Amino acid sequence: MGRLDSPPLFFMCIDSDQQYLKQCFSLAIQAKGFTSPNPLVGAVLVKNNKIIGRGFHQGPGLPHAEVNAINSALGTEIRDSTLYCNLEPCCHSNKRTPPCVNLIIESGIKRVVVSNIDPNPFVQEKGIKKLREKGIEVDVGQFAIEGEHLNRIFFKNMRSHLPYITIKIASSLDGRICLENGSSKWITSPLSRQYAHQIRLEHDAIMVGINTFLADMPALNTRDNSNKVIKENKKIILGDMNKLKPQHWQHSNISQALLIHTGNEEYVCSSAIKTYHYKSFGSSLKNLMTALYLDGITSILVEGGQKVFSSFVDEKLYDDAFIFYAPIFLGNGKSNYLNVDISAINLGHRMKIIETRSIENNFLVHLRQE
Amino acid sequence: MGRLDSPPLFFMCIDSDQQYLKQCFSLAIQAKGFTSPNPLVGAVLVKNNKIIGRGFHQGPGLPHAEVNAINSALGTEIRDSTLYCNLEPCCHSNKRTPPCVNLIIESGIKRVVVSNIDPNPFVQEKGIKKLREKGIEVDVGQFAIEGEHLNRIFFKNMRSHLPYITIKIASSLDGRICLENGSSKWITSPLSRQYAHQIRLEHDAIMVGINTFLADMPALNTRDNSNKVIKENKKIILGDMNKLKPQHWQHSNISQALLIHTGNEEYVCSSAIKTYHYKSFGSSLKNLMTALYLDGITSILVEGGQKVFSSFVDEKLYDDAFIFYAPIFLGNGKSNYLNVDISAINLGHRMKIIETRSIENNFLVHLRQE
Fold it and tell me: Which of A174, A344, A352 has its CB closest to that of B335?
């Protein structure tokens, strides 16, 4: 499906362990966008240098990758096989599915190869320890960087208790995201917009400011290339909710959305829609992000407009930024970023370029915080 | 030296003709930036599948590539050899050097292989015709596209009697070329700025607006990576020259510059500097460009600021645009383009992306008119 799928490096798979781990990654990726709050995990069961089982985790409440791999091998002799898995097998029971380590031990698997230690404090090295105590050989760390990249949302969640935050901007060469009259359809090409849906797929929620919402009435979901909805992302609208008028309520999206009211005047929502008051978080974007994480939102794609982008940049609250540029000069309208206080070039917000790529007659820049 | 040097395609040099023509291009490029108003030309003399002579045109008034190639072969038997040359040999005498076709005929060369017909109306196919009349076999057209790319300045000059015009912009992600306070040093990285000197090298003249000139006092020359001046480009300053105060005259560049006064009030230059009055060209940028071409300026690199960029874009008077982006948000200051009249996205000035490339932690976009 594109760049975000692929762990950065997979050259030189020189030994069979690496080849089988690579297969785990390929399996894991198949559930991209559908496992939240769980990580992407794939598993391969190998005996006498032959794959006898494969599996991946398909979503919360469903069996783990290891279970699926072992189940898919039923009928063959699993005993003395090797299990490959990109993430440490779980050992905790405070969840909907039983611990994988027990099943591994019972199956008579003699060796386990994993890329990453599970950053979840309920597991973290405990799964590996338990396996080793039962005499199972465990190898850890091959493709660990790629594994952390694959599950960067999950790793961030576990380590910082914040959603993984990505900024997505569609911009002209002169940095405009819309004309003075609000018009923004379409700056970028159809292929760029399709590509943007791949980024939406990876995220739990899509956030827009109220002005962008009212101007564009975006569907805020993930659609495939034939415009079929493949995922209803959670929807977050940020801004002064008193701007919402009765006619806007006919737009079905609002009733599915989470509203974050930032206005000074009180906002009383006339329906049962979940509403946060920004003030109650001390008007702190970081506090708000923590609250959203505690409410189960593991990742947010921030899609505009200028004010929302600028806040996330100024607070350094994003992980990734994707800017799609179209080769067009617009000459007026809102820039993708506004901060009148920057008085010297070295005080500007500088980032690291991860990748640039051409898309049709557009180009995409992937940035990360320095 | 980089992208601009290399004709776009040289894969699959399957026959020896192509291999020798490729050598002509490599030779021609050695004089890049120094042959104006002449084209870049390289020549190779081959006998019995062995190169017996090489040459390239080094600059106006100096021998042509064919002459240098033939002279370099002195002492060997030139008769019955084949001459390869990227451009048709000249046949006209209204210039400082004698026509090459005569020398070719006298030398007993039996075959000539060229990529491009010379677009100069004094030559155009006449050189080839004369050779053929003397029984010399002439093959034309291999690598013609690459040849036209190599000499795109010369081809444009001959066809439209206008300078080749390139826009060069250093920009933040939000499209700013300077902060509100005028500060612009440095948005882009040292490597980007070095690369920009490769673009300067290819151009006869560098043009800036008066405001940019006064703010930055740029040297407007071409320097190598160790900051040594390798070419003094012609310098053009555009704007209201009444902004020039006595202290600015101490800046040595002004005395070498061509001033184009655009102000309403009359400007009387206190020294012998060449000054054009924009009004006398009907305040038409195109008329001005024609006048500059007639004054011997074959190519112009337009380096800013906003007003100058915007004029060339609005008048569609540029051939290439190079935008160097740094991964920085500035949030205020001048955008690289301004046009308050654009009222719909499809009325924006859209271009074709030729190439994007990473330079250090910057990226460069090369655009051309649609």
Answer: A174
